[in-house]
Design brief:
This protein has a domain of 85 residues: Nucleic acid-binding proteins (OB fold (Dihydrolipoamide Acetyltransferase, E2P), Beta Barrel). The protein has three helices and seven strands, in the order αβαββββββα. A hairpin with a 4-residue loop joins strand 6 and strand 7. The longest helix is centred in the first third of the chain and has 31 residues. The chain is elongated and about 80 Å long.
Length: 139
């Protein structure tokens, strides 16, 4: 019916297709564990149930909300519709300030409280590191 050449070609294509599907499955499965979803305070308020996975929350640091103790920083992230209280243990970035953008990575305790493991301060396109600004002034 079919020649040997056609059977070998079909077998090669089938093995290549199975290998492609298997490798895509393995890549997606490994990414599933490392993906961190980004949500705003308003999106968190709309959640039906809390997940125990690590997430990122982004927004602005509310004015007069930063409270720094010896080993903990507490502040409020807002998207100007809803707010969420954040606690963080560790050093905050230099760009971290009130009324500035911030992204906090960590775990939700409930819909109002977030325990951050990492703080990422955001800046606009006009930002220039102090070292570069000083070097430009010297020149």
């Amino acid at each position: 019916m079919y020649g040997r050449k056609v059977k070998l070609r079909f077998l090669f294509i089938a093995i290549a297709f199975i290998t492609l599907i298997l490798s895509a499955f393995l890549v997606l499965k490994s990414l599933e564990e490392n993906v961190i979803y980004f949500q705003s305070p308003s999106e968190i308020k709309l959640l039906s149930e809390l997940d125990k996975k690590k997430i990122r929350i982004g927004g602005m640091v509310k004015k007069n909300s930063i409270s720094i103790t010896a080993n903990e920083v507490k502040f409020i992230i807002t998207d100007f519709k809803n707010e969420i209280n954040v606690t963080y243990t560790g050093a905050v970035p230099n760009l971290f300030a009130e009324e500035k953008g911030v992204v906090a990575e960590g775990f939700l305790k409930d819909k109002n409280f977030f325990s951050a493991t990492k703080i990422l301060a955001k800046h606009d396109e006009n930002y220039m590191p102090p070292e570069v600004k000083a070097a430009l002034k010297e020149n």
